[in-house]
Design brief:
This protein is an alpha/beta fold. It folds into 2 domains: about 1-45; about 70-345, TIM Barrel (Alpha-Beta Barrel), CATH 3.20.20. About 40% of the residues lie in helices and about 10% in strands. It has helices at about 10-45, 115-125, 140-150, 165-185, 195-200, 205-220, 240-245, 265-275, 280-285, 310-325, 340-345, and strands at about 70-75, 80, 95-100, 105, 110, 130, 155, 160, 190-195, 230-235, 250-255, 290-295, 330-335. The longest helix has about 40 residues, at about 10-45. The radius of gyration is 26 Å and the shape is globular. The structure holds 2-acetamido-2-deoxy-beta-D-glucopyranose (NAG) (6 copies). One 2-acetamido-2-deoxy-beta-D-glucopyranose (NAG) binds near residues 128 and 153. It catalyses: Hydrolysis of (1->3)-beta-D-glucosidic linkages in (1->3)-beta-D-glucans. Glucanases play a role in cell expansion during growth, in cell-cell fusion during mating, and in spore release during sporulation. This enzyme may be involved in beta-glucan degradation. Active on laminarin and lichenan.
Length: about 375
């Protein structure tokens, strides 16, 4: 407090010493913030980066441990080796496969680039094409990074996730264009704007079709030499003329399990279903027809005659894969890994469609058919 009776000289001294105090205090606070920032940085990145929405990618660049030859680590800190040791039980016979990294459900992104590398090492032994469900948790960015690090000839189809939350859509849309800016489109076969949006009835189909048009317009304006097809994917039974008009290729999820048939008849049922639904519209419009999901679960409630079990999955693999390859049906198998987070959120059936366990181990007794 400045004494009102003090001389001008004293007043100015008091003011100046107050300024001093303020400067000293400010510097003190800045140092404190610096220490705090360092601690937060240490907890978030150096100690593994497992906090929600962490940007850690499992790279230990900057930790100064040059005695370790491994640059990447899985979520549980196992070092990742970039050499692919072929698994003799796997065969590269699938047209494509659906893939979602484990521990990658926004905002709890506890996955690392190392996890994705390990997954892609496996996927590369069964197919050259990957479809992904969304942009969150670096799923697409790290898949492309893993493909580059492993020097693989694999292409991808990312999805810009669409539900009734505009914030989510904007985040996914921005992330998609960031990835395209960073990696280009050489390894991108197309982009799906949403998956099963019509099935979930969350937004007006007209809004979805407008978003497809917006994404197409923006990607075409970027001047790439290659044209990137833009579409959505939905249940085969939801494909109609308006859907077909809105997309560059007709992508549909076909799930014979929900057709309620014995696995023995599932492949034939699927081919017939395709011809009568999405395939019919695609042919009429002279557009490519692609099966965005087809597969069989190994655990969960039965659906009519359809049983979720490993022998039934084996029946489906034996009857569908080689036949589809011969017929030149384009399909993305559903899916790579079992998904415990889906089991936790919905049902055991939802989480049990993987060919592999969440840890990437082929389900016991499963064999890949001999197509030649
Ligand atoms: C991984 O993280 C490191 C350090 O944060 C960063 O330098 C690098 O660019 C990241 N890589 C990817 C593919 O995000
Ligand atoms: C450095 O890496 C080596 C080999 O992975 C490991 O044994 C060692 O504990 C690491 N050191 C530190 C300080 O992290
Ligand atoms: C990676 O694995 C290969 C094959 O097992 C091995 O030869 C190589 O030494 C390993 N590299 C590292 C850095 O551990
Ligand atoms: C990551 O996934 C594995 C395998 O599903 C699971 O055991 C683990 O608890 C998950 N970790 C985190 C941090 O979510
Ligand atoms: C990569 O795979 C595609 C088919 O998926 C093939 O046409 C192309 O020749 C391959 N490129 C290389 C370098 O192997
Ligand atoms: C939309 O998603 C964001 C996070 O992605 C969340 O914060 C927000 O509450 C959501 N809005 C609605 C209406 O659910």
């Amino acid at each position: 407090m400045v004494d009102p009776n003090a001389s001008e000289w004293l007043k100015s001294q008091q003011k100046s010493s107050r300024r001093h105090r303020i400067i000293v205090l400010t510097i003190g606070i800045l140092i404190l913030l610096g220490i705090l920032g360092g601690v937060v940085y240490f907890i978030k990145f150096k100690s593994g980066g497992t906090g929600p929405d962490s940007n850690s990618n499992g790279s230990n660049v900057g930790t100064g441990n040059n005695s370790s030859p491994n640059k990447y680590f899985t979520w549980d800190k196992k070092p990742v080796n970039l050499t692919i040791v072929p698994n003799p039980n796997l065969k590269n016979i699938l047209y494509g496969i659906n893939y979602g990294p484990v521990n990658a459900s926004y905002p709890w992104c506890t996955n690392t680039l190392g996890d994705v590398i390990e997954d892609i090492k496996i996927v590369s032994q069964i197919t050259n094409r990957i479809r992904l469900y969304g942009m969150d948790c670096h799923a697409v960015e790290w898949t492309l990074e893993a493909i580059n690090l492993l020097k693989l000839n694999i292409t991808i189809v990312p999805t810009i996730w669409v539900d009734n939350n505009d914030t989510t859509y904007q985040r996914q849309y921005d992330d998609f264009f960031d990835v395209v800016n960073k990696y280009g489109v050489d390894k991108i076969d197309g982009v799906s704007v949403g998956n099963e949006v019509l099935f979930r009835k969350e937004i007006d189909p007209k809004v979805l079709y407008q978003r497809i048009a917006d994404v197409r317009k923006k990607i075409n304006s970027m001047g790439f030499k290659k044209t990137i097809p833009v579409f959505t994917s939905d249940l085969g039974s939801n494909v109609d003329q308006a859907f077909t008009d809105a997309v560059d290729q007709v992508w549909a999820n076909i799930h014979p399990y929900f057709g309620g048939l014995d696995s023995k008849y599932a492949a034939d049922w699927s081919f017939k279903f395709i011809d009568e639904n999405n395939g019919y519209y695609a042919k009429k419009a002279n557009k490519d027809s692609v099966i965005s999901e087809i597969g069989w679960p190994t655990a969960g409630d039965p659906h009519g005659e359809a049983i979720a079990s490993i022998p039934d999955l084996q029946n489906f693999l034996n009857t569908f894969i080689c036949a589809a390859n011969t017929k030149q049906v384009k399909y993305y198998y559903f899916e790579t890994l079992d998904a415990p987070w889906k089991t936790a959120r919905w049902t055991l059936l939802e989480g049990s469609w993987g060919l592999f366990s969440p840890e990437g181990v082929l389900k016991p007794t499963i064999t890949f058919p001999n197509c030649n």
